[in-house]
């Protein structure tokens, strides 16, 4: 859930589905004779290592405690989606006998066992961090999560009234007996398993009670309390202590919390003869009823209740996770949003990119005039999305000289000003094309709604190409100027989502370069028409040419190193698992090419292995923002080439998606990216370093015990200084 809200290590709850699309159907990689067969790290265990890094942020006492609570919530949300998609997909393939990509000699069942063992370890550690560290520190700061038994009579009276008025009417206890079969348990819902005894007959019965998901996970006990000293109680704790209201005349024998995670790895079979929206809507209905793949239970659950749940849900012992209460620590998002500035990261207000500032005379020029003066490289969230990309589209919608707007939409916010700008443009009589990707995992229903709303406004809505997801982030504006048509383009690394743009680190390029304009015009025509077949001038486009282009650049660096010429590769990505790309990087390293890889999440490449990858360094950085941008930099014998765009180095991005990278053409932009990398890879910058065995070691303090440089704070200060002085790149 590429799963996030309040600020946090990943900026907020991660983009749902961002890291978890199905990558199981790639063709097997041919064995390379002179490279070791165990040269790849396991993808799933690498992802769990990433989520462990998130957990280590929650353990870091130097981070404000409400931010650490947010990291705990992010960890929980991440792990939920990992089970719903990746673990579910692995299990499905094992059960159906389909191939599961693993390291040579590793049985698929062993992969699941390794994942289960690591997940059990991490979930236990996660619960302990909350119970033993974060919760006590929250309490010391005046934010108390208390239990019913610890409350005095006056507080219990307040909650009794709240329960009676606000909770009891919406509760629905479901009995399980010969007349009432075991009920459907919805995925990720929090439930109470209740055993009761009829006081007249002595008969024992079982009931399931769903904790209402529309109510706050943690309830404020007394809203008259100041935020400097405020108390909360878990919703299920309050309900558990009022079960007598639900089962009058019955004796409550046992009650325990439990939570089920279901397989939501829905496979959509595209057919050119069927309506894609209808196919997706059918698939979304099936998703709700996927088989259970994880059962979380309270630590004190008795064996009778557990046996019943395991039998009825058809869960294996390996899939049961016994944890201390409260379950579902994703509910900590509610606490992490408390307005306690002293317990959060210091506030940061994004600046307007210097190139888009008003002139020295104070005259506000149009954004089109600013872009005509030269390419504008944007770095969000340090530079404002609303005064750049959003303003670009809003001005285009209102400008009478703009004739057409074309844009891709992969994910956007619920009240998106971007979508509204497209609607306004269409209603003003402009030609508007929106490519809405209906198959963006877990955003399918929202995107169907956007597509229908856009169509009603007169926007030409298309859904891309059969068999491919359109993941690229593109906008093209055609404007009439002095009798000629000029193209204004935006290519980004992140979605057109104003909310996540304040929390996700991304790059974007605004340009009036006619080469980019012609490239995007052709690409949009092909996306709304037929297959992509052409090469482009400043773009690398998947699925046909992006992989080839990157391999060609890697090969050039390899040849330059062999020839004794300057060489080097720098890559910033979310995930790298593609074996062909990794093998090319291994070849480059064996030739002596210095390679820096800055990865947020999954990394199947091994760094610093003698004879294989000695010149490769791999780093990972987490912080208040989610590092989301993708950058590819090649030394090119002293004339560096840099690309930014939407693609990670995964099978899906290179083979089954429409992805776009754009080459930067301004030397100052190339230098800015290079400086960004230099800071990230510096030994004095806080980060995680990958060791040759694939393990990650956090470097947060120096030999003197003082904190190392925070990359995001440093970039924030540098860009803010640029804004104050009006200095352009």
Automatic annotation (TrEMBL):
It catalyses: [phosphate](n) + ATP = [phosphate](n+1) + ADP. An intermediate of this reaction is the autophosphorylated ppk in which a phosphate is covalently linked to a histidine residue through a N-P bond. ATP binds at residues 78, 504, 600, 628. GO terms for biological process: polyphosphate biosynthetic process. Mg(2+) binds at residues 411, 441. The active site is at 471 (phosphohistidine intermediate). CDD domains: PLDc_PaPPK1_C1_like, PLDc_PaPPK1_C2_like. GO terms for molecular function: ATP binding; metal ion binding; polyphosphate kinase activity. Gene3D superfamilies: Endonuclease Chain A (3.30.870.10), Polyphosphate kinase middle domain (3.30.1840.10), Polyphosphate kinase N-terminal domain (1.20.58.310). Residues 623-653 form the PLD phosphodiesterase domain. Keywords: ATP-binding, Kinase, Magnesium, Metal-binding, Nucleotide-binding, Phosphoprotein, Transferase. It is an enzyme of class 2 (transferase). Its EC number is 2.7.4.1. It comes from the Bacteria. One of its GO terms (cellular component) is polyphosphate kinase complex. Its cofactor is Mg(2+). Belongs to the polyphosphate kinase 1 (PPK1) family. NCBIfam families: poly_P_kin, PRK05443.1-1, PRK05443.1-2, PRK05443.2-2, PRK05443.2-3. Catalyzes the reversible transfer of the terminal phosphate of ATP to form a long-chain polyphosphate (polyP). This is Polyphosphate kinase. It comes from Alpinimonas psychrophila. The gene is ppk.
């Amino acid at each position: 859930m590429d799963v996030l809200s309040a600020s946090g290590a990943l900026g907020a709850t991660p983009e749902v589905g961002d890291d978890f699309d199905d990558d199981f159907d790639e063709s097997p990689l041919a064995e390379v004779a002179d490279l070791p067969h165990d040269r790849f790290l396991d993808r799933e265990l690498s992802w769990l290592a990433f989520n462990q890094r998130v957990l280590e942020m929650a353990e870091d006492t130097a981070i404000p405690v409400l931010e650490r609570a947010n990291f705990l919530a992010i960890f929980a949300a991440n792990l939920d989606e990992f089970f719903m998609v990746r673990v579910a997909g692995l299990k499905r393939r094992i059960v159906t006998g389909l191939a599961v990509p693993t390291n040579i000699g590793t049985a698929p069942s062993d992969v699941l066992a390794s994942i289960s063992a690591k997940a059990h370890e991490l979930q236990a550690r996660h619960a302990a961090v909350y119970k033993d560290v974060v919760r006590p520190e929250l309490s010391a700061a005046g934010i108390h999560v208390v239990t019913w038994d610890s409350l005095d009579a006056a507080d219990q009276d307040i909650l009794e009234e709240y329960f009676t008025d606000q909770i009891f009417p919406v509760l629905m206890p479901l009995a399980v007996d010969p007349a009432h079969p075991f009920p459907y348990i919805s995925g990720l819902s929090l439930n109470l398993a209740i055993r009761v005894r009829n006081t007249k007959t002595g008969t024992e019965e079982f009931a399931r009670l769903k904790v209402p998901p529309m109510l706050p996970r943690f309830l404020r006990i007394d809203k008259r309390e100041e935020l400097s000293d405020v108390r909360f109680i878990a919703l299920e704790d309050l309900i558990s202590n009022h079960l007598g209201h639900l089962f009058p005349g019955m004796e409550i024998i046992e009650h325990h919390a439990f939570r089920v995670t279901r397989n939501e790895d829905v496979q959509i079979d595209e057919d050119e003869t069927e309506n894609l929206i209808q196919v997706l809507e059918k698939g979304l209905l099936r998703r709700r009823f996927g088989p259970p793949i994880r059962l979380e239970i309270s630590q004190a659950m008795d064996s009778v209740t557990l046996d019943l749940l395991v039998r009825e849900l058809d869960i294996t012992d390996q899939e049961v996770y016994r944890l201390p209460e409260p379950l579902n620590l994703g509910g900590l998002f509610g606490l992490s949003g408390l307005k306690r500035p002293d317990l959060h990261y210091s506030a940061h207000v994004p600046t307007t990119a210097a190139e888009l500032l008003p002139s020295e005379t104070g005259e506000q020029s149009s954004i089109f005039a600013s872009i005509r003066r030269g390419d504008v490289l944007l770095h969000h969230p340090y530079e404002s999305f609303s005064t750049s990309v959003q303003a670009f589209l809003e001005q285009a919608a209102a400008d009478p000289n703009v004739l057409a707007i074309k844009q891709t939409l992969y994910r956007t916010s619920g009240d998106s000003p971007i979508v509204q700008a497209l609607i306004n443009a269409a209603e003003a009589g402009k030609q508007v094309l929106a490519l809405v990707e209906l198959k963006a995992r877990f955003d399918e229903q929202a995107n169907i709604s956007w597509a229908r709303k856009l169509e009603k406004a007169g926007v030409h809505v298309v859904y891309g190409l059969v068999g491919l997801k359109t993941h690229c982030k593109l906008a093209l504006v055609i404007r009439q100027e002095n009798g000629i048509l000029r193209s204004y383009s935006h290519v980004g690394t992140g979605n057109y989502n104003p909310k996540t743009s304040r929390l996700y680190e991304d790059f974007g390029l605004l340009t009036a370069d006619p080469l980019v304009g012609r490239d995007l015009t052709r690409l949009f025509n092909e996306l709304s028409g037929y297959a992509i077949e052409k090469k482009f001038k400043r773009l690398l486009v998947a699925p046909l040419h992006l992989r080839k282009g990157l391999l060609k650049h890697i090969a050039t660096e390899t040849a330059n190193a062999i020839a004794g010429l300057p060489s080097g590769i720098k890559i910033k990505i979310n995930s790298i698992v593609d074996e062909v790309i990794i093998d090319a990087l291994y070849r480059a390293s064996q030739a002596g090419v210095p390679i820096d890889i800055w990865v947020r999440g999954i990394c199947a490449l091994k760094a610093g292995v003698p004879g294989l990858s000695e010149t490769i360094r791999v780093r990972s950085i987490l912080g208040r923002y989610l590092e989301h941008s993708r950058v590819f930099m090649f030394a090119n014998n002293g004339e560096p080439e840099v690309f930014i765009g939407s693609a990670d180095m995964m099978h899906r991005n290179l083979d089954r998606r429409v992805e776009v990278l754009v080459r930067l053409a301004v030397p100052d932009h190339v230098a800015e990216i290079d400086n960004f990398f230099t800071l990230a890879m510096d030994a004095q910058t806080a980060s995680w370093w990958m060791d040759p065995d694939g393990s990650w070691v956090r470097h947060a303090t120096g030999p003197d015990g003082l904190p190392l440089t925070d990359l995001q704070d440093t970039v924030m200060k540098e860009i803010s200084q640029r804004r104050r002085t009006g200095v352009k790149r």
